[in-house]
Amino acid sequence: MSQLFGSIEAGGTKFVCAVGNEELIIIDSTAFPTSKPEETLQKAVDYFKTFEPSLAAISVGSIGPIDIDEASETYGYVTSTPKPYWADVDMIGFLKAQLDVPMYFTTDVNASAYGEKVLDSSLNSLVYYTIGTGIGAGALQGEDFIGGVSHAEMGHTFVKRHPDDLDFAGVCPFHRDCLEGVAAGPSLEARTGVRGENIPLDSPVWDIQAYYIAQAAVAATLTLRPEKIIFGGGVMAQDHMMNRVRKQFSELLNGYVPVPDLADYLQTPKIANNASATVGNFALAKRAYLRHNQD
Amino acid sequence: MSQLFGSIEAGGTKFVCAVGNEELIIIDSTAFPTSKPEETLQKAVDYFKTFEPSLAAISVGSIGPIDIDEASETYGYVTSTPKPYWADVDMIGFLKAQLDVPMYFTTDVNASAYGEKVLDSSLNSLVYYTIGTGIGAGALQGEDFIGGVSHAEMGHTFVKRHPDDLDFAGVCPFHRDCLEGVAAGPSLEARTGVRGENIPLDSPVWDIQAYYIAQAAVAATLTLRPEKIIFGGGVMAQDHMMNRVRKQFSELLNGYVPVPDLADYLQTPKIANNASATVGNFALAKRAYLRHNQD
Q: Could you report the predicted ipTM of this complex, rounded to two decimals?
């Protein structure tokens, strides 16, 4: 019987669980809200139980920060996330207790970055941002995720405040006006009293948000020099936002280093239906399975 | 006869040329001001000519941005640097025309980062910032410099402006109030009319500068997750500055991800006399020589 690889995209608002075949094609998937940890993780276990014994390995792409150091006592934990109930949760421990397969643990955005590389194997370096309830980014240089002792956590760096936004305190519980605090979805609602999807396109809040996201792209460009920066999440799927970000990116970078045509350089994911993390997890699960069987 | 390895630290204010032995010990060195390109580079050539034929290879650590893509038509060039006269200069071409040895080309800060790793080979990831006339940073993850299509250029990312510094426009010719524009040496003089070394320690400008440098350290921490961040340059050699940066770093990061004790994590170079880049260049020249002879 052919093998199946499991993906858990453990996001801030929902869990997406899926199984794929050896060609990394999605065979089945399910999604449920991210409620309290034990309840949510048990649903994931129950889902994957139905695919035993074909299930060969699972990769989990999780909201962070998480502990990915296999030598650490808290390996497999979600650590200091602002997400209520999810700090200090032993995610991999819970899964391993009921599912006896090799597991890989990384961030949701690293899994997404890896998925985009699966689809375009000529890409040697890329950064994947998600702009949603929170902001996160994962990055690849060659086959390696960027990150010395742990994973990138680029959503919480600081940005130059927009002149028309100086009075907004920011909503990050850790840093107030870090990138996530001023540019993630909840910041839009905090400024306007209206949920992002209901804010009119001529509201100045969009250019303010784009100004911050463009700065993140400048920082990623100057720090990591990637071939491409990919933006996932609903906000960036709107053409008007990507165009605002490209325009402000160009003004902010001001030609300091060469970058490709911005329509190519700053992009939405090539993998449709928000499945970048799922495809990336399949590939990472397969890699974990192959490495496990080498040992 | 034993081999010698050459180092050129091509900085914004001076060139430091040196030769080292196979143990990477400095045998001889010289320094001269960075004047116009041809004059300055010819001095470097004349210096290394005196060590032929023992000279086996040279590594150049240069101010940036530079073109390090060997497939590029402008490989070996300093490209868009704000340094007068030095934009679009074919540095490696000039040297190669008169010195027939393998050459390695990287940024001054990458060379410094590599030097610090030579001295502490247990370090698997580090970032090296220099805070001087300009601000630059190089980073290592394993044996690889951080940077997909080219080198890091982290001195020009944007920072949250200090509340008491909002009226200062910044002095970067490309970005005005990027990190370099508000925290490099010339910004101190632009604010106060007094050169940095003559500004009293109780001036508020130091905490403003530290606030920006601390944000750079937060960004490097959250993006690259290094084991250590090293600060070179005269400003950071002063204990009061390093302590100000550590204090503000701690407040800004606010425990979001774990970092080592800050006295270890945020450090000055271990290699004395500003020789980190020289030692790094020796090691990179030796690596270039060995690779050249493998081919």
A: 0.95
